[in-house]
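Quick one, T. Sequence first:
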Amino acid sequence: MRVGRDGVVTRVLGCSVRFTLPLRLRAERHAFTLVETLVVVAIIGLLLAMLMPALSAVRRSAKAIVCSANLQTLLKDFHFFANGESEGGRGDSEQLGPGRFWINDFQDSVYHIDEFWDGGSAVTATLSSSDSPMLCPAGASRLTKRQGFPCGHQAIGPADDVSLAVNMRLYRAVFDAQGKKLLASPTATYLSARILDRPYVPLILDVDGKRAVASGVDPFYIAPPIPGVDDPYAAGRYWSPARRHNGKTIVGFLGGHVLNSEMPEKERWDWGYQGELGR
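Structure tokens:
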């Protein structure tokens, strides 16, 4: 094999020349061409496009699992609260005497607002989805809470970003006034530990805060119309569930279990149960 001055490699076998090839051309044969590079990039892009929906589905499923776990935590907290066994007491509900309470005080206790304020001397504090079960991980990541107010838009905001709502029939019962169905005030509607004997009553569920606010109501309490029942809930103004988990709403029940449904208002659950009336 000889290398000539012109850069040509010549392989010699005996007296015959087998082949000749410039060194420069041999080096170029090991490099990617522009077309080959573009083909590789296109293949990688196609694979990523195929993979992203699967990764998104995994993330959505993971958030649904976390949300369900949050609801189970809240259901346990409610059982302690209803039985008068919660560490922080029952707030203003103590004035009702043993065995009775307002559902609004339970909301105050899990948000740590009003008489359950945990922010010290600060006027406001931040709730994040990483440390509060009241924020669904598939919803807004933060809320701001304010000292001195019970659960409502003055205490928690922005209202559009509220993730979870309590069954409104436990907050404002329906009563009959001379043949007309009206909503009782929150202070006239109370609960007792007897509610724990109704395991299929929905307690807490995903809420669409923006939709509730657009309807002119706070998103902290929602309830669906009941077929055939003509009452203030019939028009659907107080019904704004969120279907943020693959098109489904996650619902926690007094029995301690959590279910999900595309149309929770159509399920044969105990939506008709309401709080007791009187003081």
